[in-house]
């Protein structure tokens, strides 16, 4: 379950970063875009090297509460967006639209001025911000479960898979079912968040780790119910308006 | 007027990242999680009500998500 949660969560973030790099590379040239993305990865690796081990010195119960709280917030934010999109209350995240918007934004700049800088900075910013989220997810999930290596390998696998997808399909990112992925990840994050927050606060869960499956089933069922209710609400409100 | 220094800009950027990451456009979820942790800590640590704390935690998470979605649906309708 840890492998799946880390893999899916990281894959979602990497797809977002990949969209930006593809847009920059296509418009401004691949050299600057890849340099920006590469530097972002180096900076992230340095940050992990500097602060990663320090995170492991934090008392475990306190770490679990902090990690659990962050995962609960992050997971609920994702679930909320995914439910709103699945029910039609909010437009689905369209990677093609993001790609076209980035291309248009970059095309608006004067090509003769700071051409490399624009590509470099935009690619760096995109990869760094999305990558930082990946780092936080890997560190928190890995440290709390004492399986840092497994979490890191899962993230690396996600990087390889998303990278391969990016190379092969390039501009057809919209085929990646992002909302379904985001919904699954949201359920997994809220599940881990509930479990670890409780453990950090000295709750003795019945069945220990087996309780994770119970939470997973609870939140998956809740998500399904919320999508159904939100769709009906949307249909009724459209009916009233029309 | 002087431009802020690099350190100031970096610190502001760092703080903005965490603010966007944890609060963003859903402050109700942040507040709900803080309240949930406080409530469960009181039940579990102070009162030793393990079973009650175990039920309250997921129940408050479910309530927070429903509340946030209800708020969002009101905003979009």
Give the gist of this structure:
The complex is a heterodimer of chains A (242) and B (77). Chain A is mostly helical.
Compute the gyration radius of chain B: what is it?
A: 18 Å
* Quaternary structure: heterodimer
Tally of individual domains of chain B: 1
Ends apart, CA distance between termini of chain A? 46 Å
Uncertain stretches of chain A: none
Question: Could you tell me which chain pair has the largest interface and how many residues each side has?
Answer: A-B, 36 and 32 residues
> Mean pLDDT across all residues of chain B, rounded?
86
- Note the beta-strand portion of chain A: under 5%
Helix percentage range of chain B? over 70%
Q: Kindly state the mean pLDDT of chain A as a whole number?
A: 76
What does this structure look like?
Chain A has one domain. Helix content of chain A is 83%, strand content 0%. Chain A contains eight helices and no strands. Chain B has one domain (23-76). The longest helix of chain B has 27 residues, at 50-76. The interface between A and B is medium-sized, with 36 and 32 residues.
């Amino acid at each position: 379950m840890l492998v799946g949660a880390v893999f899916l969560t990281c894959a979602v973030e990497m797809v977002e970063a990949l969209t930006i790099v593809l847009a920059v590379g296509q418009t401004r040239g691949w050299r600057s875009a890849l340099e920006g993305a590469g530097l972002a990865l180096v900076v992230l690796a340095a940050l992990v090297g500097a602060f990663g081990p320090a995170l492991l010195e934090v008392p475990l119960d306190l770490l679990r509460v902090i990690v659990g709280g962050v995962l609960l917030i992050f997971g609920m934010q994702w679930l909320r967006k995914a439910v709103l999109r699945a029910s039609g209350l909010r437009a689905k995240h369209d990677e093609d639209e993001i790609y076209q918007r980035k291309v248009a934004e970059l095309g608006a700049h004067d090509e003769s001025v700071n051409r490399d800088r624009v590509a470099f900075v935009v690619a760096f910013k995109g990869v760094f911000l999305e990558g930082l989220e990946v780092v936080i997810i890997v560190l928190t999930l890995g440290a709390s479960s004492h399986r840092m290596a497994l979490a890191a390998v899962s993230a690396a696998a996600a990087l390889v898979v998303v990278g391969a997808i990016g190379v092969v399909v390039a501009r057809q990112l919209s085929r990646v079912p992002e909302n379904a992925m985001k919904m699954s990840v949201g359920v997994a994050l809220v599940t881990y968040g509930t479990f670890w927050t409780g453990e950090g606060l000295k709750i003795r869960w019945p069945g220990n780790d087996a309780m994770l499956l119970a939470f997973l089933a609870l939140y998956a069922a809740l998500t399904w119910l919320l999508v159904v209710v939100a769709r009906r609400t949307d249909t009724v409100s459209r009916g009233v308006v029309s | 007027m002087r431009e802020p220094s690099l350190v100031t800009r970096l610190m502001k950027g760092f703080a903005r990242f965490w603010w966007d990451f944890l609060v963003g456009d859903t402050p109700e979820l942040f507040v709900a999680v803080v309240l949930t942790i406080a409530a469960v800590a009181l039940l579990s640590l102070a009162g030793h009500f393990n079973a009650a704390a175990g039920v309250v935690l997921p129940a408050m998470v479910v309530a927070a998500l429903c509340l946030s979605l209800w708020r969002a649906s009101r905003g979009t309708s």
